[in-house]
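Working notes for the structural subgroup meeting. M.R. asked for a predicted model of this chain before we commit to crystallization trials. I am recording the input and output together here so anyone reviewing the notebook later can reproduce the run.

Input as submitted:
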Amino acid sequence: MESPKLPTVGPPPTASPLVDGRQSDRALAIRRGAARFFAQMGATCLFEASLANGRRADIVALSPDGLITIIEVKSSPADLRADTKWPDYIDFCDRFTFATAPDVAQDIFPETEGLMIADGFGAHVIRESRLIKLHASRRKALTLRLARHAIGRLHRLDDPTGGAPEA
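Returned structure, recorded in token form:
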């Protein structure tokens, strides 16, 4: 008996779906260092996570106790000046912080928000972020959205043409 013919599937694309081309190498290094910092604290990070308000957070960190921190990467003073959307992230996290490179002046960042200095190897906190606990219903909705986003991304890594939906 002859085996049924299966469709031929080509190799997966070589470009990383985790890098969408919008970030500079410098911003990617800051992102990597900030994520390593949070990983050392036991948190997991999701990059370029879409929020219910249509904004896309550079990094969302979920700590073991369920706290959600959004980290906004700023690679230069011009990057910060051009960005007017960062306040839109605050309603979607327990903590909000900026991550920037060591050579960027720290005094340009709002004193009301957290600040960390990062490079491609790690990061350290300059100023702790405020803790403003999310309402339970928003936390549940956001956690579900982040889980679906992460699972969908893993699905697309395994099967780029399989039709996994964006969260």
